[in-house]
TrEMBL record, chains A, B:
Residues 33-52 bind DNA. It comes from the Bacteria. Residues 10-70 form the HTH tetR-type domain. It comes from Actinacidiphila reveromycinica. The lineage of its organism: Bacteria, Bacillati, Actinomycetota, Actinomycetes, Kitasatosporales. This is Putative TetR family transcriptional regulator.
């Protein structure tokens, strides 16, 4: 029954990814070894290699998950047909990073703090590894362009001021997301939801 | 002549810090060794140890320089007696990260790209090292409070809307600084000066 086998494989892979996320979140990418990840997952030292050729492959998988989960709410709003305001786009951008738990594509719960701590580390990795920077830059540009498109629709619909340059407005949304993400994990400023509500209510826009 | 000796010592120390910054910027903190730094500086393998007990001490020195240089323009504006607008504070916050070269306390030129690439790495370090997080969090809080104070003066003077919460406004300024810093080094969006000008001109505030 190949279907069951595939499901079991997927569940085991998810356990290894979750264990790696806990290790990376505590110790960092570079202070964590494959045997550390196996021990955290409670599997044999060789087991992770049945799913990932190297620690770098696990980092890439976690970076991809983090990106998708963090940007999902703003991408969904921006890719719709509505004409959201800049404040609504900012509030959506802060959605995942204001929460405690999200669910990955397979429905497994993911601790948001762990996810964000891994995301900050992928920024450093992107500076020295083409393998990390390539997909990160491509994903960033896709979301940025999608937000700019939504702001352009908003200008046409009158929900966004005509003086707002969509490309620059999109960079502000992305900048606030990254900046508040960093404030939450590195500087203990956890009231991101309150900030989002203020911004949404028209505090600065 | 102890003064000359102290000057020479300071110049040599600055050369080692500059060499470390180049190495860290290219390869990252963890892929750089003390012998790598000595080779980059063109000194003997033991020479860096006359100035720093470990690579971690050099990382702390560079993190301190980066923090001071990045926040200097907005701290100066916020610590003055003027009542700047939110837009003026954002423009000041983007000052250093929009430039190409700055000068450190001793007057040595520092490449801004290198400085910012090191800054992104200190964020990851702050997540796992108390020695990095302590001063970083303290410095962040000092600048944030200083910006909040300036916004409070602005509310009293009428240059800042009464509806703007100074603490939250300060987090927006810090968030945009960190977000645009990351966009410049990791996502190739270098027109930070243009963004600052737009924000200053009242694009969103």
């Amino acid at each position: 029954m190949p279907r069951l086998t595939a499901e079991r494989r997927e569940a085991k892979r998810a356990e290894i990814v979750a264990a790696a996320r806990r290790c990376f979140s505590r110790e960092g990418f570079h202070q964590t070894s494959m045997p550390d990840i196996a021990a955290e997952a409670g599997v044999s030292a060789g087991a992770p290699y049945r799913y990932f050729a190297s620690k770098e492959e696990i980092i890439l998988a976690i970076a991809g998950d983090a990106f998708r989960l963090i940007f999902e709410p703003v991408e969904r709003l921006a890719d719709g047909t509505d004409a959201p305001t800049l404040g609504e786009l900012v509030a959506a951008a802060l959605g995942t990073i204001s929460g405690e738990t999200v669910r990955d594509a397979a429905g497994h719960p993911v601790d948001v703090d762990e996810l964000l701590r891994c995301a900050v580390q992928t920024w450093s990795e992107a500076l020295r590894s083409d393998e990390v920077r390539g997909p990160a830059a491509e994903g960033f540009e896709r979301v940025r362009a999608s937000i700019a498109g939504a702001l352009d629709r908003g200008r046409a619909a009158g929900t966004v001021p005509a003086t707002l340059d969509p490309d620059r407005g999109a960079r502000v949304v992305m900048g606030l997301l990254h900046g508040f993400l960093l404030q939450r994990v590195a500087f203990g400023l956890t009231d991101t939801a309150g900030l989002a509500a203020d911004l949404h209510a028209g505090l600065i826009m």
